[in-house]
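hey can u check if this looks right to u? its 128 residues, i copy pasted from the old doc so theres a chance i mangled smth
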Amino acid sequence: MAKTGTRTTRDGASALVYSTDGGRMCPRCRQPQNACRCAALAAAGAPKGDGIVRIGRESHGRGGKVVTLVRGLPLPAAELLELAQRLRAACGSGGTVKDSVIEVQGEHRERIAALLSQQGFRVRVAGG
């Protein structure tokens, strides 16, 4: 007979958190964690926003230095960091990722737009 562990949720219901048959259980899908479907469902979800990647530039609050911003990429954080690294290398400049926005130092809108459209993203260059 399998031993199980439960915990009480906020609404007063009990949730299975451990079973000797399957080990730790996912609280959302109630499957063993090694067979959890939650992460796969979240990754396969619809893109955030309207699916258009917007590339703009900004210099406010940066001492007059121009930064190219890439917004609206429907990628998980790890893939976003990898893409940011490739974009910075292609532009030959530095940058970072903050709040799911890629920042590349300098004016590189056209180059980044060409690179992203080659990878199959719908791209719109924003700003003047």
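The longest strand covers residues 52-58.
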